[in-house]
Amino acid sequence: MNEKFLKWLDGDDAYFDQVLDSSMEGVPSRETLKAERRAITNAIVHSPRSRRAVAAGSRTLRYLYYVVAVLSAVILIGVLLYCVSGLPRYGQENVRADEVVERYVEHGLEETGAVNVVAGMILDYRAFDTLGESHVLFTALICVMILLRRDRKNMDSRLEDYYRVVQDRYFDTSGDEILQGVGLILVPCIFLFGIYILLNGHLSPGGGFSGGAVMGAGMIIFCSACGFERVDRFFTLKLSSWITFAALSFYSFAKGYVFITGANHLENHIPKGTPGAILSAGLILPLDIAVGIVVACTMFGFYSLFRRGSIGGN
Amino acid sequence: MIHNLLSNYVEAGAIVLFGIGFTMLLFHKNLIKKLIGMNIMDTGVFLFLASMGYISGRKAPIIANGVTDMEAYINPVPAGLVLTGIVVSVSVTAVMLALSVRLYKRYHTLDLDDVYALSVHINEDR
Amino acid sequence: MAVTEIFKILIMIVMIVCAIATNLTKKLLTTVIIFMSYSSLMCILWVLLESPDLAITEAAVGAGVSTILFLVTLKKLGQLDERDAEEEAGHE
């Protein structure tokens, strides 16, 4: 066992390929897969007709394009650097930005109850920006699902999808011992850290986006270490869509009623509590949790769609 | 003018990063390199925007010990704007990567000039 | 000049060198890894500019999820292993 490990450590890749090939039954070997892929690429890209079409682009147009590109880049950077040299000196206070910043910093604690001024600003004074941005994330997830989803209805060419599915299984990392050992120690810590950042969004640096991104990254490590079957037990498409929909509609109704009642909206009856406690700051904590759920589901949804073409398994 | 550029070094560095990303968009033909160039442009713009709020000698905008004076904290408004921007940037990157995967599945090449040339004569077969 | 100013200038110079390096490499895997280190340096710069919210978000999103998406795309397109990319390019 020792000399095989030393051979692999020295970079002897041929031995590593042999080990991988012999451990998969019922799967065509790596050479067959590569030969098939090369055949398809040759048929589409390198056929004589394609070569004639590619070479038919005019040469002078290409040189002209490079000259114009260099000129425009130099002019753009030159103009921008000239404007930067006219800016006020870096690190000094901006004299004109007084009123808005004064209101946010001096009255922020008593009006919103949040110790973190930035979190109080984006979730209370400027809550519509965050609402729009959660919808942008959700829309991006839908777009990626439209482009990359693979189920029985849209697998058109049997050969291409066959070798892609097989190649996904071939590079599956879920049985690896190092990854599983490290993952089983790290994943609970990452989840705890993500939930801590999420819940303390109004008391210390953090908030909805950071906490959600850390939780999404924790789900990605868990999925790589333990395989897709274990994740499919609790994270199905139905669960993911329903909790994302619930979080987004909760946010929309909590801040969207002002379209009906006007700008002097109803009084917020949720108590502000004492600054410094977790259960304080009115509506900021539930909104933080909603944004964090949307971000975590979106990040893991991206990864799952890229890896195998569906969120909850076909 | 050079003296002003050297004293505003963070903004000048952000513009240089924007320029490097822009040239990556213009001069490379590979789709993945263009996407990385666009990401570098995005981070250059965020650096420029958020460095406008920095005031030297003051602390991060988290109220400590009950000091709610405006003179003790930096400007928090640009930081809130950039926070939205970072998340939108990753969404746009994800959608464009999905598009490039579909493009590769159709044309089997990542070179953009070849894709333009092939798209003319592959579609005229149908 | 204070020590933090020198530190900021040093980090900005290394970030510009990283950005130029992504421009000039030929292999795609190297480009993605240099981009990940560029994101991590940016995270340090956010802390020096006294914005800790942006630092946590950039670390989790830029050096985390964005780089993972690039790597998964490269794996799907077959460009991850340099021998595969060379074989595909060597048939022209």
The greatest interface between two protein chains, and residues involved on each side, is: A-B, 67 and 61 residues
CATH architecture of chain B: Orthogonal Bundle
Order of helices and strands of chain C: HHHH
Number of domains of chain C: 1
Query: Which stretches of chain B of 5+ consecutive residues score pLDDT under 50?
Result: none
**Biggest β-sheet description of chain C:** none
Shape by Cα distribution of chain B: elongated
* CATH topology label of chain B: Helix Hairpins
Write down the domain tally of chain B.
Answer: 1
Mean pLDDT of chain C, nearest integer? Answer: 85
Provide structural commentary.
The complex is a heterotrimer of chains A (314), B (126) and C (92). By secondary structure, chain A is mainly α. Chain A folds into two domains: 30-84; 116-264 and 273-308, no CATH class. Chain A has helices at 2-9, 13-22, 30-44, 48-55, 59-84, 98-106, 108-112, 117-125, 127-148, 158-170, 177-199, 208-232, 237-256, 258-261, 284-308. In chain A, helix 8 (117-125) packs across helix 9 (127-148) and helix 13 runs antiparallel to helix 15 (284-308). In chain B, 70% of the residues lie in helices and 0% in strands. The relative contact order of chain B is 0.11. In chain B, helix 2 packs antiparallel against helix 3 and helix 3 (31-50) runs antiparallel to helix 4. By secondary structure, chain B is mostly helical. The model of chain B has no long low-confidence stretch (mean pLDDT 86). With 92 residues, chain C is mainly alpha-helical. Chain C is flat and about 50 Å long. Chain C has one domain. Chain C has helices at residues 3-24, 28-48, 52-77, 82-89. Chains in contact: A-B, A-C, B-C.
